């Protein structure tokens, strides 16, 4: 089996969530309809957004519950990413902190998914 190349999130408002991730990750929305949107990064990784009410069979899980991770090259880059996320009014769920795996913060998406940004700890 090949490696996964995309992630699909169930969301309440595809347009609102597509705009959020477009601005946060600076990647284009390449497809958009009333109940679906697709964003694709320059590396080819895709993030699909599907209106929760339109998913068949209906999802069993509640809203949110997925954590997207972004690895950055420096502590300064993490701090800069936090400024960008705050400018988008993303709720800060965890302020910048040094944890075992590195320097990190966590923000929420419009649908309660998490976006963790971090710089790995030195080995």
Question: Quick gist of this model?
Answer:
By secondary structure, this protein is α/β, with parallel strands linked by helices. The chain contains 2 helices and 8 strands; from the N terminus they run E-H-E-E-E-E-H-E-E-E.
Cα end-to-end separation: 32 Å
The total strand number stands at 8
pLDDT < 50 stretches: none
Strands of the biggest beta sheet: in what spatial order? Answer: 1-4-3-2
Give the name of the CATH superfamily of the largest domain. Answer: 2,3-Dihydroxybiphenyl 1,2-Dioxygenase, domain 1
Shape: globular
Mean of pLDDT: 92
> What is the percent of helical residues?
10-25%
Task: Report strand %.
Answer: 35-45%
**Overall tally of domains:** 2
Indicate the structural class.
Answer: alpha/beta
Order of helices and strands: EHEEEEHEEE
Please work out how many helical segments DSSP would assign: 2
Q: How many strands, which pairing sense, and closed or not: the largest β-sheet?
A: 4 strands, mixed
Rg is: 15 Å
Tell me what the CATH architecture of the largest domain is.
Roll
State the CATH class of the largest domain. Answer: Alpha Beta
**Would you tell me which CATH topology of the largest domain applies?**
2,3-Dihydroxybiphenyl 1,2-Dioxygenase, domain 1
């Amino acid at each position: 089996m090949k490696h996964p190349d995309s992630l699909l999130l169930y969301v309440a408002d595809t347009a609102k969530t597509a705009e959020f991730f477009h601005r946060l990750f600076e990647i284009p929305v390449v497809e958009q309809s009333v109940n679906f949107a697709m964003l694709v990064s320059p590396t080819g990784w895709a993030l699909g957004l599907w209106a929760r009410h339109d998913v068949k069979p209906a999802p069993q899980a509640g809203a949110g519950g997925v954590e997207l991770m972004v690895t950055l090259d420096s502590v300064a880059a993490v701090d800069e990413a936090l400024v960008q996320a705050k400018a988008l009014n993303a709720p800060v769920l965890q302020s910048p902190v040094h944890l075992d795996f590195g320097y990190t913060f966590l923000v929420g998406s419009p649908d309660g998914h998490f976006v963790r940004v971090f710089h790995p700890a030195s080995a």
